[in-house]
Amino acid sequence: MGNWPMLQIRGVCACVLFLSILARTISAINSEPTRELRAEVVLKVRPDDAPTREGFEHFYNTDYDAAIRDFERAQKAHPDDPFAVNHLLQAVLVRELDREGAIDAQLYMGTEFLQTKNISIGPQARSRIQELTAHALSLSEQRLKANPKDTDALYARGVTKALHAIYAGLVEKAWFSALRGALSASHDHQYVLELSPGYADAKLVVGVYNYIVAALPLYAKIAAFFLTITGSRTRGIEDSRQAANGGGEASIDAKTALSLFLAREHQYPEAVSLMRELYRAYPRNFHFGLSEADLLRASGSLPEAVAAYWKLLALGQQGMFPKGHLGQAAYALGQALRFQTDYRAAAEAFESADQMSKGNDEQAAKAKLSVGKMYDLLQERDLAMTKYREVIATGRDSSEAKEARRLLKQPYRNP
Which are the contacts of 203, defined by CB distance < 8 A and separation ≥ 6? Predict the structure, then answer.
């Protein structure tokens, strides 16, 4: 059996980490996403002050450095508030995850639902995340000692645990610790709802938990000892919808979760509408723009998806997304063009994705392999073999390299 149990636990943790990520992160095609066209969003935040509101504005526009400065100001003004510490913690952590390309909504839209990427962050960021986590937990625990039914403290503690689960799983690779932390976060938020059924923000984690457990395959439930827990996709979607409509600081993440869940249920019109709303509200959020285009492609609206990818790339070239992972958009464009059987244009898009990889060897190998496949479909075998050799030359014992070796012997044909 080898490492099967650990691999399955890791897969389950990926799902639970997805719950955590959605709980505190991420997460217009025919018109420029300018400020005049923005759907203004006014979140009910805690503490309700200018630095916190500005911090969320910067955070959801993926300007993490500015968000961190804003949340630092808020923390100084409210030193005993665990919400203020959690906001700073999430910004520091998500900045590192995004830097490593770990925020990719498409990962949870298809067959890669149980996969996750290992993240490596620097010692300074690692130390700060650990310190902020301990501080936030301490503040919540102090309030709960005085009043065990303090719903705000319970909610804040659950958020901290969810953030720590992300860190433990993706950074420390401590999968059992991540699983325990994420489930404990869900239990905290379930208790919040028992005490205060109208606490909309708490419905996000509970809703995502319900959906994911219901969606897990049997072998994953066995590996994580989930056999007695059934979950409910319908309830998970409804809880996420209520959190999305609650107007709290988790409502943006709830809309992201709801959009992805609806896509997995093939309810694409509402899923696209939600993501479009998010992108118009936060036009510098590359992930929202990319997710909108991905959802259009998944729904079969290929011409619209191609237009959305082109627009996203054009905006990126204009500096709209200074830290955006444009290679992801170029690769997705190639996939959409391939589905349209425009293999020449697809090859060019995959070439662009390769050039935009910027040190991401995995993405570069994937793009090179796809270029080779397009040349095979165009019956340009010499060019295809050149690309396959480039994949092999990366020296990585990857699935891409293995497939490239196979394709050197036999040309690629559409499955």
Answer: 189, 193, 239, 240, 242, 243, 246, 254
Q: What is the DSSP letter of 168?
A: I
Q: Which tokens is 241 given?
A: 């919808």
Distance (Å, whole) CA 125 – CA 167: 11
Residue-wise pLDDT tens digits, 298-344:
999 999 999 999 999 999 999 999 777 899 999 999 999 999 999 99
3-state secondary structure of 44: strand
Q: Are 298 and 263 in contact (CB under 8 A)?
A: yes
Whether 278 contacts 285, CB under 8 Å: yes
CATH number of 325-415: 1.25.40.10
Entry pTM: 0.86
Q: Which residues pair with 248 in a beta bridge?
A: 44
3-class SS of residue 356? coil
> Which amino acid appears at position 400 of this protein?
E
Using alpha carbons, select from 134, 113, 91 the residue that is nearest to residue 13: 113
**Where would I find the H helices in 245-301?**
251-264, 268-281, 286-298
Kindly report the three-state secondary structure assignment for every residue of 286-303: HHHHHHHHHHHHHCCCHH
Domain boundaries, the chain: 4-286, 325-415
Tokens for 110, please give them.
């298809």
- Whether the Cβ atoms of residue 384 and residue 376 lie closer than 8 Å to each other: yes
And the tokens for 315? 């905006």
